[in-house]
Design goal:
Blueprint (H helix, E strand, L loop, with lengths): L10 E3 L5 E3 L3 E2 L5 H14 L3 E3 L7 H11 L7 E6 L6 H15 L6 E4 L7 H13 L6 E4 L3 H9 L7 E5 L7 H10 L2 E5 L11 H10 L3 H11 L3 E2 L6 H8 L8 H8 L3 H7 L1
Parallel strand pairs: 3-4, 4-5, 5-6, 6-7, 7-8, 8-9, 9-10
Antiparallel strand pairs: 1-2
Helix pairs in contact: 1-2, 2-3, 3-4, 7-8
The site of NADP nicotinamide-adenine-dinucleotide phosphate (NAP) has 27 residues, from helix 9.
Length: 272
């Protein structure tokens, strides 16, 4: 089994030189014992990035799964996010401390603003800079931020986000944001890389999957990897966890990348 370990082959270097895996596990919707079991199983299988958020209510289970996995702290890249209700300078400092407490960690690898909040982003970002300088996180990032919101951070000459976690798959492919992040050294982390399962029966996608002898989910993940972004598919079953990790032994040809680039969510919803 190929594993998405922290070796350079499976990592990107962020704008502050920290190495981040290009493949990880999303955990939105995983709770309690099920979350514990799935995350522990994923870590044993070779997943090396776990994405959570204080809003998901599962940080404690993820921390426990990591400790019980027997892996060392350097082996696993753990990310969490400050919730909108906790934005603001003091609130963010406290929210990060609370997340670390629930995770049972002294630092996370990447701390992100989950969603922008009008009037609060800059104060929150100041707190993120502070958390970074104090070693509470190895990198800081944003999620669901638009170009103007990132430009505001840039104008103020603050630390540029290392990552923007956004919805990213062939059906939701914002080229302007993709190019902007590439030009500014901001790494994209793709959430809902499997379209939450909505478009897995799309005819074009099924055709490409058939041609490579791969599943539609594997084609979507491979497409994102070839765009150079990190993917964090959420999966519950062992079958899905394994399948999603098995994407390092093939390559999509240019023509097929173009076909996938042309897909649209609107069309997928009409065809369903
Ligand atoms: N920053 C944000 O605002 C934000 C927003 C949304 C998500 N996220 C993060 O991104 C992660 C992933 O996004 P997501 O959970 O929205 O959706 P997703 O990963 O695109 O899709 C998850 C769905 O796909 C199914 N699935 C997984 N592997 C499959 C496979 N090989 N074949 C067929 N179906 C498969 C899962 O089913 P099973 O569970 O049954 O395996 C689940 O129903 C989240 O868990 C979360 O960590 C962040």
């Amino acid at each position: 089994m190929l594993s998405a370990d922290l070796s350079p082959k499976f990592c990107v270097r962020l704008n502050n030189e920290v190495r981040m895996p290009i493949m990880g596990l999303g955990t939105w919707g995983l709770e309690g014992e099920q979350c514990y079991r799935v995350v522990k199983c994923a870590l044993q299988m070779g997943y090396r990035l776990i994405d959570t958020a204080s809003m998901y209510g599962n940080e404690a289970e993820i921390g426990r799964a990591f400790r019980d996995s027997g892996l060392s702290r350097d082996d696993v890249f753990i990310t969490t996010k400050v919730a909108s209700k906790d934005q603001g300078y003091e609130e963010t400092l406290a929210a990060c401390q609370a997340s670390l407490y629930r995770l049972g960690l002294s630092f996370v690898d990447l701390y992100m603003i989950h969603w922008p909040v009008v009037g609060k982003n800059i104060d929150t970002w100041k707190a993120m800079e502070e958390l970074f300088s104090k070693g509470k996180c190895r990198a800081i990032g944003v999620s669901n931020f638009s170009i103007p919101l990132i430009e505001e951070i840039k104008r103020r000459e603050m630390v540029l986000p290392a990552v923007n976690q956004i919805e990213f798959n062939p059906f939701v492919y914002e080229r302007e944001m993709f190019n902007y992040c590439a030009e500014n050294g901001i790494h994209i982390e793709a959430y809902s890389p499997l379209t939450r399962g909505i478009c897995l029966q799309d005819k074009t996608l099924l055709g490409v999957a058939h041609a490579y002898g791969k599943s539609p989910a594997q084609i979507l993940l491979r497409w994102a990897l070839q765009k150079g972004v990190t993917v964090i598919p959420k999966a519950t079953s062992v079958k899905h966890l394994k399948e999603n990790l098995d994407i390092f032994d093939f390559e999509l040809y240019f023509g097929d990348m173009d076909k996938l680039d042309a897909l649209s969510m609107a069309q997928c919803l009409i065809d369903r």
